[in-house]
Amino acid sequence: MMKLNDFKPLICFLLGAFAAAACILSYLSMQQPGGIEGLRVWGFGAEQTVDYEGLGRVLKDAAMNDSTVILTTLNEAWAEPNSILDLFLESFHIGEQTEQLLKNLVIVAMDPKAFDRCRTKHPHCYYLNIKGMNFAAEKRFMTRDYLEMMWRRLDFLRTVLELRHNFLFTDMDIMWFRSPFQHFSGNSNFMIASDSFNGNSSDLHNYPNNGFVYVKSCEQTIEFYKYWYLARKLYPGDHEQTVLNKMKKDSNFFTKFQLEIKFLDTAYFGGFCQPSKNLNKVCTMHANCCVGMANKLYDLRILLEDWKNYTAQPAEEKEQGGFTWRVPIKCKH
């Protein structure tokens, strides 16, 4: 006959698991996040060690007067010659008054070869050294490595906020044609692009795209990014963007953090999901709703050609409108 002592290991395990789950749920359900001042994002099990040595200096060198930096990430696959990196940088050079923003851009390399390539192309490069991880190859959408890279990126952005820098994060498959900063509301600490925009920048039914997001550093945004990263354990196997979409279904979600979220209008911040139709207004175009680097490259090259054709036209013809994108072609979803 089994004795009580025989069940002690099982009982201890169950109590420990219950306590851990209770801690997570208690944190995620807090009405006011301010009570966790100083809490670092903690791993769940064996997390890889991240080395942030030298990050503060790189950010300071690139920062605007208000401590804002533009950030993007790069891996070896996107760093190859004539690949995404070259198209991204070209867009700044051919855009309207965007070239001057390159001095505020920090390219975050996810592997050593990407870092080496970055340093041949741009003055502000940072190697995000995550021990035990290899992000060099192309990461197909929603694969395990892709998801890990997206969550690591999110945690890196939290660190930038903790270093008291505002940031505008941009995916590298976003082409820049005009400065976006005039379209950012001074009242909002968190502004994010949309895959599709319904016309109301405050409507939580807009579907967010975390590939283009402007965040001001403050206690509320820092705590929010901690919350967001922890929430990955409640939604295993989900993209960080999908997790955000699930969390915001609670109409009081951002109120809990004293945050006002604004969704950016696709008329200015478009993409292949919902293209910007007026080239006289467009600031950025994103190769979203597109799977595979080859497809992205094909359509982005055409996109840049279309922009060059537009800018070559006389001012009066531009004002009349009528210019449209030929893409998406390969990126039709």
List the helices and strands and how they pair.
Layout (H helix, E strand, L loop, with lengths): L7 H21 L21 E2 L3 H8 L5 E7 L1 H4 L4 H11 L10 E5 L2 H10 L3 E3 L1 E2 L13 H19 L3 E5 L3 E3 L13 E7 L10 E9 L3 H12 L9 H8 L5 H4 L4 E3 L5 E3 L12 E3 L6 H19 L3 H6 L13
Parallel strand pairs: 2-3, 2-6, 3-4, 8-10, 11-12
Antiparallel strand pairs: 1-5, 6-9, 7-12, 8-9
Walk me through this protein's architecture:
The chain has 333 residues and is α/β, with parallel strands linked by helices. It has a domain at 49-259: Alpha-Beta Complex (Spore Coat Polysaccharide Biosynthesis Protein SpsA, Chain A). Helix content is 37%, strand content 16%. It contains eleven helices and twelve strands. Helix 5 (112-121) links the parallel strand 3 (105-109) and strand 4. Helix 4 runs parallel beside helix 10 and helix 6 (144-162) packs antiparallel against helix 7. Residues 7-46 and 137-142 have low confidence and may be disordered.
Task: Summarize, please.
The chain has 333 residues and is an alpha/beta fold.
- Top-tier CATH class of the domain at 49-259: Alpha Beta
Order of helices and strands: HEHEHHEHEEHEEEEHHHEEEHH
Q: Work out the helicity level.
A: 25-40%
CATH-derived architecture of the domain at 49-259: Alpha-Beta Complex
Unreliable spans are: 7-46, 137-142
**Largest sheet, spatial ordering of strands:** 4-3-2-6-9-8-10
Apparent shape: globular
Count of DSSP strands: 12
* Tally of helical segments: 11
CATH fold annotation of the domain at 49-259? Spore Coat Polysaccharide Biosynthesis Protein SpsA, Chain A
On the 0-100 scale, what is the average pLDDT? 85
* Biggest pleated sheet: 7 strands, mixed
Portion in beta strands = 15-25%
Structural class: alpha/beta
Q: What is the terminal-to-terminal distance?
A: 63 Å
Rounded Rg: 22 Å
